[in-house]
Amino acid sequence: MKKALISLTLAAILSSPVALAENLVKEASSEKQANAAVQFRKAVLQLVRSNMGPLGGMAKGQIEYDADIMNTNSMRIEQLGLMMGDYFVTDTRKFNVKTDAEDKVWEQMDDFNSKIKDMVTAAGNLQKVALAEDQDNYRKAIGDLGATCKACHDKFKKD
Length: 159
Ligand code: ASC
What we know:
Elements: H1 2-14, H2 17-20, E1 26-27, H3 31-60, H4 67-87, E2 90-91, H5 104-107, H6 109-131, H7 138-156
Parallel strand pairs: 1-2
Bound molecules: ascorbic acid.
The site of ascorbic acid has 7 residues, from helix 3 and helix 7.
């Protein structure tokens, strides 16, 4: 009885896609599923963009320094970064979808995920700067975060 329970639990863990999601590439099974995957990953990126906007404005001096907004937005970007890899697991290359994603996303998924990790790290750092109300370093911290967006776009986004 106990043995059966253990092997059942083990089987559940081993077949769970969640535990391994970061490095799994899963081919989309239909055009409908591929289109949904494109829609969802765009939604995540749009949310990053909407949170990045005010930060960019602050770095450029177009928007007044605001540590609360910086804290909130950097925390959101960190969280969105933590889910971003999961939203790119579905490989849509086989289908005729309208996407800015380069094929390299699925050909070089480890590098793609490593660039996402850079964004998560930079967002975490910006949050620290915001919480410390460190007004000498926030522009650089925002710039460093923006640079991680650019590094990924340069390689993995069609222009
Ligand atoms: C933004 C935004 C991006 C990045 C990128 C950084 O604010 O919408 O896609 O920063 O421009 O280079």
